[in-house]
Design brief:
The chain contains 2 helices and 10 strands; from the N terminus they run ββββαββββββα. With 156 residues, the protein is mainly β.
């Protein structure tokens, strides 16, 4: 087996599952090498670090941007997938939808907005999860997006 130390940033792709032993977990990360989704790579990961396994199984959610380090193992059989044994994990950015249990997401081109029946204000993000701002009401969404595009030289 060939092993190499590796550090990558990626989005949590699936709900983490308990591993084969106690205090272990397995999960998948999507690593975007370019801005083209066709270039995305899904990494199979495991951890036997109890602190990381607990965080994965109880706190970390789909879509969180993670920074992980560990040892990449490529089995001798090339048909078998490589696995990253993670020994360090940091949440770089929580998924924007972390508290959206009673809310609705809508898409405005390259932007995502969050409607909540309990408030008039509307949080706005780019489709990549970058914070844009809060529209005072649904009618102000377009204005907020236009301001963001002028300030940042284009869309999301």
């Amino acid at each position: 087996m060939d092993t190499k130390p590796l550090t990558i940033d990626g989005f949590l792709y699936t709900v983490p599952l308990p591993g084969d032993g106690p205090d272990t977990a397995r999960f998948q990360l999507v690593v975007s090498l370019t801005d083209d989704a066709a270039d995305d790579v899904v990494w199979s990961c495991t951890t036997s670090n109890p602190r990381i396994a607990h965080a994965l199984l109880t706190e970390i959610q789909d879509g969180d941007l993670l920074h992980v380090s560990g040892v990449l193992t490529q089995p001798d059989d090339p048909a078998q997938p490589a696995r990253l044994a993670v020994d360090d994990l940091e949440v770089l950015t929580p998924a924007p939808a972390r508290a959206l249990q009673e809310m609705v997401l809508d898409r405005y081109g390259e932007y995502v907005v969050v409607f909540d029946a309990d408030t008039e204000t509307v949080p706005v993000f780019t489709a990549h999860g970058q914070w844009v701002g809060t529209a005072e009401n649904p009618d102000a969404i377009s204005t907020l997006i236009e301001i963001h595009e002028r300030a940042n030289g284009g869309d999301g």
